[in-house]
Structures are given as C-alpha cells and as structure tokens.
User: Fold this.
Amino acid sequence: MTMAAARTILDEPHHQSLELLAALALADGNLESAFKYADRRCRILPAPEPHCYVLRGEASFQMGQKTDAIADAEKALEIAPDDIAANRRMLAWAKGGRQIRAARALIGHDHDLESLRKSIRVLRQHGDRHLASVTIFDDAIEGWAVWEGEDSLEISMTDGVTAISSRFEADAFHPFAGDCRAANFRLRRPRSPSPQFIELAVGGAVIYRTRAPGNGAAPKTPVTLTESANTFDVPVTVIVPVHGDYEATRACLESLQKELALSRHRAIVIDDASPDARITRYLAKIAKKPRIEVLTNEQNLGFIGSTNRALVRVQAGDVIILNADTIVPRGFIDRLAAIAASSDDIGTVTPLSNNGEFVSFPIPNAPNPLPPLREIKRIDAIAAKTNAGTIVDIPSGIGFCLYVKRACLDAVGFLSEDFGRGYLEDADFCLRARDRGFRSVCAPSVFVAHAGSKSFAKDKRSLVVRNLGVLERRFPDHRAECAAFIAADPLRVAREAIERAAGAATAGASRPTLVVTGIGAVGAIARERARALAGDGGPVLILEVRHQAEATTVNVIEAAGAMPQSLRFKLGPSGEAAALLDFLQSLKTRRIEIVDPASTPPALLDLLLTLKAPYDIFIADAGLVAPPGKPPFVNAIRPFVAASEPNAAPIGITDDPAFPNRTGSWQKIAAGAERIIVPCAEASAFAANNLPPDIIRKLSLAGRKERRAPPMAPSAGPGKLGLVPVRCCAHEQWLMSALARGLSRHHPELSVSIVGAALDDIDLMRGTDAFVTGAVQADEFGRVVASLGLTHLFVSATRPLFGHPIRTAARHLPLPVAYFDWSGGSLKPSRSDLAIDPNASLDQLIGTLGRWTQ
Assistant:
C-alpha cells in the first residue's frame, strides 16, 4: 500500500482510518506498516477494541516477535476475555496456563470446528476429560458435550420449585467424537421468575454447572403507602449480600450493627453459599440480634440473585443495597433518607466514598485506599457539616451503597438478572429508573468507605466487559454521559469543601514540602520530583499554577494521593490570595521548591516568601535565565522559515510569550535560595553558563548521577530514526515536520517515526512519510522503541528542558541519542550520542542527523 493511499485513508475518522490501514497493510504483507498503524490505534482515544491489539500482535508474530505478540493477545483479552480472535491466537502462540485459559474460553464461545478440536485436544492433554459448551436462550438451552465412559449425558434444570431432566446418548458421527463420546443437545426452559440452575452430569458426576436468569415475570404485590410513609413512617431495610472476604465482611456488619442499634431500621443479610466457615458462624451469631434477618442460599446466586431474593421480602419502605466490604458511618441511613425525601423525582442516592468511581474521594474516578476507621469518621463528619443539603445529579448510582426509594423500586422492579453475578446492574437499574422519571443523585454530605471486594477475583474483568456490552445495547449513550460528567466534574466543589474544612490537617501535621510548578512539560518534571521527595518521607504538596482566561488559579495536590486533590484558589484582585495565605501558613511548611519560575506569578511568589520557609529552585528549564537584550542561548531552528532560505535568522526562546520578563527579580530571589537544584549534569552546565557566580555556588545535584546503558553494536542496513517530542508545542510540531520532509528528500533510505504525541499527529502523518505512535508513557517507552526497531533517537526539545521522564527514558536506552546541547559545549557526549549546537540551521541539522544515522 502506497503512502499516498494511506494519506487518503487518513482523511477518514482517526481511529477508523488507523484500523483500516493496519488491516490493509497486514493483508498486503507489509508487516512493519501493519504494526505501526495498529500500534498507533492502540494509543489514542476512543479506547481501542481488542481487535486492534490482535492486529498489532499478528504483525509482531509474523515479524518473529513472539513475546510481543503474546503480550498483545493478553491486552486484547484484558479488554474482552472472551474475544474469539485473541483467544485463537493465544491458543496457537502460547503454552501452559495461557493456552489452557484460551482453550476454555473458545470451548464456551467459538463455533469453528477446527478451533474447537484443537481446544478440546489441549484441554484433554491437561486432564480435562469432560467438556461442555452451553448457550442459554430465553426459552431453551442448547450446546454440546464430550465425555468419557459408557454412560449417557444427563441434563437437569431447577428453579427450586420445578425440576426437569433429560438424557442424551452419544453420537458416533459427532464432529468431536473419536477417542471420546460426544453429543449435541437442546432442552426447553420452563417459564420461571426465579433463576434456574443447570447441571450436566455423566454417571452421576457433575461435569458442568451454570445458572440462568429467570425468564418469567415476577408477580407484583401492590403496596399502598402515603408519601410521608416512604421515608419516615416505615423503617429502611439495608440489604447486604455476603459471600467471601471474612475480615471485610465482619468490619462492614459491625459498623452496620452500631447504626441499627441506635435506629429503628433493619437489615437483611444473605449468606450466598459462602465457602468460608468463619462467615457462616459469624452470620449465625448476628442472626440473634434484633432488627437483623439472615437468609441462607443453598446455592450461590451472586450479588444480583441474593439482592432480589431479599427485595421480595421487603414489601414496604425504602431500601439500601450495601456491599459487604463497606464501612458505614453513624446516622448514614437517616441522612441518605433525608436527601431522598427532599424531592419527589429522586429515585436513588449514592454517598461519597474512597472507592466509588465518579463519587470517589479524594481522587475522583479512582480506587483510593481504604482510610483507617478514625479517618473515615473524620471525613464523614466534615462532609456532613460542609455539604449539608448538597445534592449533585449523577449519570447513575453506584452499587457499593445505593439508597432506593420505594416509589422508584415499585416502578422499576428488581435488579436485572441479565447481568449474571454482578457489575453494572446498579447502572442498569438507575437508567431504567430514569426512563420512568427518577433522578440518580449523590449526597456528598455522607461518606461510606469501600474496600473493594475480592469476591470475583480474576473473573472481575470478564464480568465487567461482558456486562458492559449488555448495558450499552440497552443504553448506548450512557458511556458518553459518564465521560461528559467526568470532564465537567460537578462534584469537585463538594470535594473541595471537605478539603478546605479539613484545613492544615488535610495535608498532614508533619510540615509538608511545597513544589511549585505550572502545567505541561515542566509540570510533568515537577510531579516526578514531588514523587521522589514523597518517597524520601514526609508529605509533599504540589502548588500547580494554571493560567486561564478568566483567572489564574493555584491547585493544591498531595503528591502521594491523599487529601487535598481538589483544593483550588483564585489569584487576582477579586481572588482568594488571603485564603491561600491562611492555608499555607497553617501548614507550617518545611521547605519550598520552585520548579517553574516562568509560570509562578508575582502574587503567589510574594505569598511563598511571606512563609519564611527555606526555599530551593529546581532547574527544569530556562525559566530562571533570560537576561534582557541578548539571550544566553538561542535555537536557530526558526519556525515557518524554509530550510533553503538564505541567512535565516535564529530565534531565541525569549520570543516565547510565556517567558518571563522579570529575570532580574528572579535572580535576586535565586540569590536568597538555599540551593539551586539540578536533575542532571547538562542542567548543571547550563546553569553554570548562564547564572551569576554567587548563584552558581549553590548548585546541587538531585538524586544519583545519570548512567547511560552500554551502546548496542551498530545495526546493518538503513537506519531507523525516532523523533521524540517532549513539549508537544507548535515549535516542535514544525521542527519534526520539517525534519521528516527534509530527511525523506535527502536520505530516502532513512525511516522516520515519531515516538510520542505531537501537537497534531494526523497532520504530521498526512504531510510526511513519518509514522506517529501517539502518546507514550515513560514506563513503556523502551518497549515501543524496540517494537519499531529504531536504531537512533533524536529528542526534539527546541527549548532547554531537563529531567523530563520521557527524555530520561530515552537516555537510558542502549541506543544513540541526539539532542540540542544546552550546556554550551562544556559536556562531552558519550561515544555514540550526538550533541547538536542549538545555533545550527535546519539544513545543518538535516545533514548532521542524516550522516549520524548512517
């Protein structure tokens, strides 16, 4: 496939065009292009489907990179554990446990006879003598089984009331018959509102067992209640299904018992055929307590089946569906009930939690660690005070603790059995409720801790993926609604209110270090620096400055993930400088590190100096260095000037509007710093060349001296150059585009790839022969470079930048690395590296890189 054809296809929607390009290249036998386009698709939004990883894996396998191919098959199976194409490749490429898991997945989902024969053969070699595949329909079950022995296959089905069974004899002409017996079967399902348990047995020994959701409507018992009776006149029933994780279950039920002892509400706890005898004994003990009823399932019904069994018994009043790995605060039932009763159209209420998807605190949309009991009580008490009466609409409720009003429950009915053992049944219920006019809201005045259950263990991913498909077929817009909610983050104000009220205790009482930075490339360096400081002990707070059209804000972020994460102060005449100062003074700050002088506004700097804390300046870029007049460093790679234009003038970084004009003031401030910290030898040389002697004497290297990996032997054949963007800015975009075009013209044998995200990836691929990977994290940088077979790297930072994680990752690879030398020639590069004078012209740069890669 020609590059011209590829450029035409790239005019299609981004992700679709990349998938098509990868598939076409693979069909053409162009394995390298197939890998590149599939790899690119795997790195961009929207999230890739499993077949994108399958495409990339297939290209890797055909190029002889079996380990990478298997890794891609594993990634595809993480997204969709039952994906047939990924499992077929895992069956063919892998050995041992991965091959066995693939064979079992194919047994249950594949219909290709040859694939099934191989799966059966692999499983029988590993001791599985009896195998079956069962497909459940609304009115029947059907499938096939293979077994050993002379007995026939017996299939039984029961819902606990009605039972049916049937026998099937072996079919000598079955495609899987040979050294074992085999038969197809089909059995009618009787109508039942209850789940049906299905067993396949041979000679009395069960070879397969599964559970099918009910296929008949449940009888509706009419309940007449006044509106006031819904919440206040009838006790609320808390429903807690229990299966495993004894310690978490006991902590949950003990916190719930304390709540019930001081209220009129009740609980139904369901022992869902727990395999842990400690749980069984504990539930028998608490069953004797008042207002607690314990139900026991003879067979495991799962979270949904157990909850529905309890709902049948609750004919009046609101309910709370509660996970058995939560810890509830005092008064949570009445507080949730008050929110629910505040509006007739509220159907469900979800509290804040440390682990509650988009109601998570302090970091939203992330599983924060379970706090200690004392901290749980403290957060809840602060939330109750600061967010009293606050209600925030959410796309759907979250099932770790879901308050459901009686009117909503009567309108919607039970949890859907279509979601198997659990996951996303809560969203389905809430979306069905919304169709009937009910809202789902969050009550940020209540905090319920959630450990995160281990009940489903390794099956969780498979269940989530499977159930997500069910939910999206019913409510195709829900994922987009959740994404919009996350982007808007309407709960941020409520989270911030808790963090403001928590005050200095929010950041810990052990005197934090403040790391002051902006965003972007320098912000990434600052976060890396903050993590390193946090690893040395003691709390670290990042003061992140964001310059926006409406205001400049300072976000306060605890580097290790504790509170605060949502704290924000506006600067300016009508801002909150006084409140920020009060907060900073309450911290009793230990030290301050200013990482990004160029983004630190004078108002914030004045506040920081008021603290009288010792401070350091971290040299991450040239933000401390730009004396007026002649700049101490320039970059001759001027944007938008043709390489062939004679006497093209260099452009200094002082042309950047973000660069400060307050250099004199900053150097006075630097003179008062205890240390000028540098992350590497190049930053030290840069500072030594451009700072006054009294400041240079304060230079201090952060961490250990950087060590390069031993260079690899030069590779035979044409070179493969990787351009590594770091700042993702217009200047780098222009430079990479100009380099790709110039190198293609003067060195057509040289392959060029861009490893990372450019400002406009697709524009680069349309306008050049270069391939762009898209965003690459530092921890995967080496694997991507190896997968592309690159022989040389050029870190294309067009302005001084030191200590960036991607730049560090590039320097740690055993490949020759080219870079702009901001040390002024004072540092000698390693034998294979190339230090480029920033004053070089574009023509010189193209020629130098072309010769170096040969």
Summary: The chain has 30 helices and 33 strands. Residues 227-493 form a domain with the Spore Coat Polysaccharide Biosynthesis Protein SpsA; Chain A fold (CATH 3.90.550.10). The first helix runs from residue 3 to 9.
